[in-house]
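wait is this the right file?? whatever heres the structure
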């Protein structure tokens, strides 16, 4: 069938079996697109077992720079017989199905183009070792795709040489496998097909990095010297990246000794306990975890809040509740983190939208934790944390100094300055603290999780307790002036409608706003970057007849937080909720909002993805 040519604007999805060695080949494909100057956003959808279950790797190619997920698939690389029916069904009409034709396949749809390459037969002819057959089959199909999509083979050759430069003996066989697939496709198919990659200059100086690595680097630059953690998907790579970065950036120049403590604790409760202990001693400390870890940390988080000890928690959210779907993305820890512990507790939350903000907020969180003397949560999710994407290059001002907050010095104590550990002398709710060993006889206090007066003396007097709780509330109000402000983008013309969103929802929301505008539905946008909310968040709601709150959880947690904290009429805030574990798409958002305002046919909704 004759199809219109689409250049630098389509979706390729790989359907593989976990443990088949396909990950490096699929990543090679995505990086080749980037090397040709075309923005590409890969997303890895993988199971929670070690091997054997289905896995998908999706690459969105978008010269216009859209980084959000998109519904539907234009080219399916179907390498897993278990998911054949589902994978074929997910193709958009007019799409392409690429598969291993060594064995006959069931008849696919009539509205797609089938491209069969006998990958297994090719490997059986060339390789005698079973593992080589499995590994090189992946490289062969990348070569075949290069011919079909008009990807320059020289780009793949360069990437392969770079990838295996430490193991030079692997370069030649991988190059040969890639060329094997490329030449076979050129000989047996009409190359290129209607989906094509054309060299462009749209990547610029942007870097390609995942959010977990960016946050870990931010922690290094933010002055963190202690990381206590327990492995849990999808946050493990954050702690591992911190360990990797400290080997280069936290070593004594003379001795080579590591100037950081990285401890894998026996569980999440122990890890947050270590972080709090280190913070009490004056170190900048953090843990990395996910929803189940937050559940286990509740009592210690309450202690840090009430005893006013700095701590940073990187929460890379996944689908819950309980174990939920460990390898699927969601924004379901918002309420759990905002009110973690068992009482009148409120915590500072930061919501980065991309790796760049993961780096910035990853560093800023430590300043906020010490300035406010409290735990600070940086809420990523699996989509932003574990998937690489294009990001603005990171920058750092070497003249920037750490904000240690109100720390009373030995000289001030010696001069007779009045020290009350929980005494509010400035009216901002933040007391002065001392660090252990500051003075041999002054400035000491007993840290406890029970009620005390302004001088840290134990008491159960109701008035003293009330004064302390009111001061903590003032401190939270002060935090509103210190956390990142929301980002607002107004429509070209005045509108009655607004949309509030946060975190990894941002790319899809921005694209959805363009879709809706094309249909005459205008939205003012407000991206929330922190809790407590700035006053302008409530002002934004007041300015609009209806505000759509877009988030990736079942219970509209950010919306609930807005209603509780802003005393907002719930009827003004309209839920737009996506919670199947896959990243939210622009089509979904546009369809939900368009349907609500009377434009139900804004965009055709494609079939949901696995």
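ok assuming it is, sequence goes like this
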């Amino acid at each position: 069938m004759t199809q219109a040519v689409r250049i630098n604007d389509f979706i390729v999805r790989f359907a593989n079996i976990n443990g088949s060695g396909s990950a490096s080949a699929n990543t090679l494909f995505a990086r080749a697109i980037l090397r040709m100057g075309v923005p590409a956003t890969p997303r890895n959808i993988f199971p929670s077992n070690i091997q054997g279950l289905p896995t998908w790797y999706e690459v969105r190619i978008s010269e216009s720079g859209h980084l959000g997920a998109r519904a539907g698939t234009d080219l399916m690389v179907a390498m897993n017989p278990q998911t054949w029916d589902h994978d074929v069904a997910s193709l958009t009409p007019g799409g392409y199905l690429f598969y291993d034709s060594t064995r006959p396949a069931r008849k696919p749809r009539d509205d797609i183009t089938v491209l069969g390459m006998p990958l297994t037969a090719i490997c059986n002819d060339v390789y005698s070792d079973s593992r080589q057959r499995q590994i090189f089959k992946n490289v062969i199909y990348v070569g075949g795709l290069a011919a079909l999509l008009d990807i320059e083979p020289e780009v793949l050759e360069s990437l392969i040489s770079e990838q295996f430069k430490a193991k030079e003996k692997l370069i030649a066989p991988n190059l040969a496998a890639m060329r094997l697939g490329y030449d076979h496709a050129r000989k047996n198919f009409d190359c290129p097909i209607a989906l094509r990659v054309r060299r462009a200059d749209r990547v610029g100086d942007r870097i390609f990095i995942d959010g977990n690595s960016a946050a870990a680097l931010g922690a290094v630059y933010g002055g963190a010297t202690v990381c206590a953690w327990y492995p849990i998907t999808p946050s493990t790579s954050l702690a591992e990246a911190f360990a990797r970065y400290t080997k280069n950036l936290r070593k004594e120049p003379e001795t080579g000794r590591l100037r950081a403590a990285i401890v894998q604790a026996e569980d999440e409760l122990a890890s947050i306990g270590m972080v709090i202990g280190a913070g009490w001693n004056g170190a900048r400390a953090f843990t990395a975890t996910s929803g189940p870890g937050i559940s286990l940390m509740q009592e210690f988080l309450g202690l840090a809040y009430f005893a006013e000890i700095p701590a940073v928690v990187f929460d890379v959210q996944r689908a819950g509740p309980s174990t939920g779907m460990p390898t699927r993305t969601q924004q379901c820890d918002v309420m759990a983190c905002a009110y973690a512990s068992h009482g009148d507790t409120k915590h500072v939350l930061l919501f980065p939208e991309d790796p760049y903000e993961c780096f910035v907020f990853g560093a800023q969180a430590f300043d906020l934790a010490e300035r406010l003397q409290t735990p600070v949560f940086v809420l990523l999710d699996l989509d932003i944390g574990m998937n690489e994407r294009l990001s603005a290059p990171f920058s750092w001002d070497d003249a920037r100094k750490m904000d240690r907050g109100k720390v009373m010095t030995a000289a001030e104590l010696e001069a007779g300055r009045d020290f009350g550990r929980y005494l509010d002398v400035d009216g901002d709710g933040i007391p002065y603290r001392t660090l252990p060993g500051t003075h041999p006889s002054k400035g000491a206090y007993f840290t406890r999780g029970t009620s005390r007066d302004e001088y840290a003396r134990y008491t159960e007097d109701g008035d003293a307790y009330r004064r302390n709780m009111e001061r903590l509330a003032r401190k939270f109000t002060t935090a509103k002036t210190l956390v990142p402000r929301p980002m607002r983008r107004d429509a070209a013309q005045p509108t009655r409608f607004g949309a509030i969103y946060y975190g990894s929802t941002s790319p899809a929301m921005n694209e959805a706003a363009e879709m809706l505008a094309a249909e005459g539905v205008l939205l003012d946008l407000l991206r929330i970057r922190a809790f407590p909310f700035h006053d302008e968040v409530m002002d934004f709601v007041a300015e609009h007849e209806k505000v759509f709150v877009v988030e990736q959880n079942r219970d509209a947690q950010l919306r609930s937080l807005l209603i509780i904290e802003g005393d907002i009429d719930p009827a003004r805030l309209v839920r737009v909720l996506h919670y199947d574990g896959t990243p939210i798409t622009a089509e979904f958002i546009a369809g939900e909002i368009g349907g609500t305002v009377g434009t139900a046919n804004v965009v055709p909704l494609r079939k949901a993805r696995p």
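Residues 130-149 form the longest helix (20 residues). so i think its the right one actually
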